Amino acid sequence: MAAVLEPYIYEGGIHKHTLITELLEDLGGYLIQKVPAATEVTLTMLIPREDVHLIEELGKKLLGTLTKAPLTGTEIAVVSPTLASHHLPHSACDVAEHLRRDGANTNMIGLARGMGRRVALSADYERRLINEHDLAVFSFGTFSDCIKNKKPKLLEGVNIPKVVTGGPELKTEEVAHADVYVGNIGRVAHRLRKSDEISSLDVMNQKVGEVVEKMREELAKDPLAVLPPRVMKEVHEQVPQIYEVLTPAPITLQLDGLRIKLPYGQFHEKIENLEFDEGIRLSELARITPSKMKNYILVKIKRESEVGFVI
Amino acid sequence: MEALETFIVESTVPEEGEAYKSIISDVISELVLGGAIGRIKAVIRPEDSLFQMAIILRGSQKPVKLSDFGEVGYGALEKKEIKITINEEKYLPPLLEKLWARYGRGNVRQPERRTVIVRQKGDLETEIEFLKEMVVADPKQTLLSRLVEMAIRSTPEGFRVRYHSMKDNFFIFVASEDSLKPEWIEEGHKILAELQEVE
């Protein structure tokens, strides 16, 4: 059984940060994302539980900070009714940003015809795109009447856990199809930075974290045949073209799979034939399909009960 | 009338009206309309998909002429040049647009921040008189477009069926996602009448 991995974010100067990534590699952890910004760098990583203190000490020496990031390794869809200025950039982008601070990878999805009450609807393509994620956060508006009676139809057909944010304080049961409702994050035309707004975002992160924790527990009952970070590592080693991809997260981890941002037609065979040390190919362990997002490759890893073993 | 002396937003649920007020005030400040609006009242009934708004503007601003913010005089006489000295740079872009359209880009020079030199062929005297009276910016025009923008931005997005009326300084806006009922428009006019009564 592999060591228990804990998600952390390291924020610090870019100077000598490779010491951290080298140590992480030696410890058997995984670097999930590296975002350099001028002289600063943000590293999202999975560290073996018993070795966290080693990274922490080194981080302190380099004057950086190591914080826990409970949403690491999840891909969250932040869904806004449309892409018009009514819904964006605030509050949907603030919601996405706050989720990213806890380590999640977020995708903003603006529906084509999600606005209004009677006329609101979502397309089959949009629902399938949302279903590729681990979890969806729907960012709704100010009026309880809309959130209770009209908007829930946008949640229909979405099979992944759904978190709804809105202005009024409602109970989760009042919003049909929603798994969690978070209030006080309604439609605003300014950046969320007052203390009460930030604390509602914190509440949201906490509730999303609880949902993710529950999903992880479900997964632990019938574990994945291979851990997504391990697949990521193998892709890095065996498909060097991934280094030429310019998106911020060329490989995005999900709880039960990963999205590889290479064109499907050209690369799916390479990904299917990815070989592990145990002599097993990825195609035996996972379903590899074209993603609804651009032309990417979506890998969903099978469970132990289906494959018969775990590597 | 003071700026924003009346600012009311009503909704079926009072707290939601308050929340919506913050959206409208953000939109107003974003479009720099705070000084132009005297009184404003919006009524929103989400269960009817209805948004109504009435606005009374403060006294309208006059069109800005070149002589309001600059001086027009003689430049180099032998070249038949006109020298324009401006005191307020914020009108420079529309002024240059107008000068380019009239004299051509090659004939307009700006040797220094606040000075524009125009080379022209016509009679100096009459050209100078013309330039002095030339309207460079019309705040009312931009105000109107900003007002419409504000109305559209502050309406819930799906409400695409709209009615608006602009008369003197009075603006009425009604929007819904269904076809508008005549009584809703009447209500809009009533809201305006209410605002006018406030003294």
What does this molecule look like?
The complex is a heterodimer of chains A (311) and B (199). Chain A has 311 residues and is an alpha/beta fold. Chain A has 3 domains: 5-68, ACT domain (Alpha-Beta Plaits), CATH 3.30.70; 75-219, Rossmann fold (3-Layer(aba) Sandwich); 228-307. Chain A has 10 helices and 13 strands. Chain A has a 5-stranded parallel β-sheet, sandwiched between helices. A 4-stranded antiparallel β-sheet of chain A has the order 2-3-1-4. Chain B is an alpha+beta fold and 199 residues long. Chain B folds into 2 domains: 6-61 and 139-197, Threonyl-tRNA Synthetase, Chain A, domain 2; 64-137. Chain B has helices spanning 14-30, 66-69, 92-103, 124-133, 139-154, 182-197; strands at residues 6-11, 37-45, 50-57, 64-65, 70-74, 81-86, 108-112, 115-119, 135-137, 161-167, 170-176. In chain B, a hairpin with a 4-residue loop joins strand 2 and strand 3 (50-57). The A-B interface holds A 81-82, 84-87, 115-120, 141-146, 167-168, 186-190 and B 11-13, 15-16, 19-20, 22-23, 26-27, 30, 44, 46-47, 49, 153, 156-160, 177-178.
> Could you name the CATH class of the largest domain in chain B?
Alpha Beta
Overall geometry of chain A: globular
What structural class do you assign from the helix and strand content of chain A?
alpha/beta
* Overall 3D shape of chain B: elongated
Task: Count up the helices of chain A.
Answer: 10
